[in-house]
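Sequence in, structure out. First:
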Amino acid sequence: MKSTEKESADEKKPAGSGSIEVMLAQTYDPVKHDPSGWLMSEKMDGVRCYWNGSCLYTRTGGIINAPKEWKAQLPKMALDGELWTGRDDFQNIVSIVRHKTPDPDDWKSIKFMIFDAPLIKGTFAERLVKIAEELAKEPNDVVKTIK
């Protein structure tokens, strides 16, 4: 997403029982795209999710059952990101997240890697600043922004 692009909460449309439409990765073509002024991040190989401030959802609106202790470490603001355990660990993260009854010990290895705060008004770059400010209030090992 271009760092100067405006995308406000007013432009987002609900897409499920607690979810919203989220930004999706696009393919970079050096012939078609000039990356000047764009913000990019590593592609995480985890489970995409949306936190509405109290519940976790898949990008299609399904509920993700996380332990209460784990969710208690998340801020009360809506966040879009990826549940991630590490590189080359996709099958493990999927198996943990799919459990209807979450295992708190399994969830200790999961980080919520934040891409965006889609309900905050402003440019993408401005929203990243707001995320950093919010996470600095109560730092922990669960929530991280993608650099």
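Second:
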Amino acid sequence: MRAQSAAAAKTSRGLTTDYRSRSFWLDDVPDDLCPQPALGTPLDVDVAIVGAGLNGLWTAYYLAKADPHLRIALLEKEIAGFGASGRNGGWCSFAFPTPPARIAKTHGQEAARATLRAMQATIDEVGHVATAEGIVDAALAGRHRADRRG
């Protein structure tokens, strides 16, 4: 068992947690991972996003890209990536839990094809953003895309 790091803090439920131990992804984040204090005053924003998991972070990212003048507040009860988003296995897959045949039966063949194309495009977009933002280099992002297609 590793010693508690500086990231150990009281959660909103009053429990002490070592955020680094919750996730492989959080283990090597250079930030101290201490939750920020609660808002002391109301915010005047154009968009308030509740939750800094993958959905909240991607929503804030694309809103800011679409309109850099938007005032966006991303609110998180703990720290970004605290929940299921921070504990995932890092998979980026176009697999969908519903087989294409079932989608086609319920919604039509074109809807099934469109769903699969959208899921595949998502992988390319994750690679593009990860490269553009310096999260991974182009060779690594390209390899993952090549592996998917190979």
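Remark: The chain has two domains: 1-89, 91-150.
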